[in-house]
Every structure is written in C-alpha cells, then in structure tokens.
Amino acid sequence: MSAKLFSIVELFEIPGRGLIVVTDTAIRDVPKLLVGQKINYRKLNGDLYHSFIRGIEMISPFDSGRSFCFLAEENLTKTDLPIGTEVWQVGEL
C-alpha cells in the first residue's frame, strides 16, 4: 500500500549532519515513522526517488504542533528535493 505522508516546505543543511527536511504536517498528525523507514520522494515533474528516513529531528522545546522534520539520506542535497516534493510511504506503516 502507498499513501502520501506529507510535502516538503523547507530544507536546510547542517554541516556534519546533513539535509533536514521540514514538512507541511504537524508532529501530532504524522503516523508512526521509524528511522530506516522506506519512503519515496515524488517530485512535481513526476520523478520518483526511492529513499529512507535517516533520522527524526526533535526540536526543543518539544511542541506537537510544530512541523515534522527528518534527516534525509546522506547523498541528497537541496537541489535533489525541490520545495513541494511529496513524501510517500512504502508498504505498511
């Protein structure tokens, strides 16, 4: 089964850590996701990229209303994931 999880609204890079993906969905509204969870990025031009969640970012102080953020695969950059790219689940959650 495949379902859209969220869209990318912002990206930023942290030197030594990697690319952080900020989504359009509040933490409280995201289904349970795990580090290593397989996902697909669907770009606006239709391109599909198979990937996984490398890490889940916890912003302090914690607020379940904040946007869900995660660490992208190591080799990805801002140019690989344009704003508006959709993130889809792979398989069952």
Topology readout:
Blueprint: E1 4-14, E2 18-26, E3 38-42, E4 48-52, E5 55-57, E6 67-71, E7 86-89
Antiparallel strand pairs: 1-2, 1-7, 2-6, 3-4, 3-7, 5-6
Index terms:
single chain; 93 residues; mainly beta; Elongation Factor Tu (Ef-tu), domain 3; seven-stranded antiparallel β-sheet; 45% strand
Question: Would you summarize the structure shown here?
Answer:
The protein is an all-beta fold. It has a single domain, classed as Elongation Factor Tu (Ef-tu), domain 3, CATH 2.40.30.
Written account of the structure:
The chain is mainly beta. It has one domain (4-89): Translation factors (Elongation Factor Tu (Ef-tu), domain 3, Beta Barrel), CATH 2.40.30.10. The protein has no helices and 7 strands. The chain has strands at 4-14, 18-26, 38-42, 48-52, 55-57, 67-71, 86-89. It has a 7-stranded antiparallel beta sheet with strand order 4-3-7-1-2-6-5, with no helix packed on it. It is globular, with a radius of gyration of 12 Å. The termini are close together.
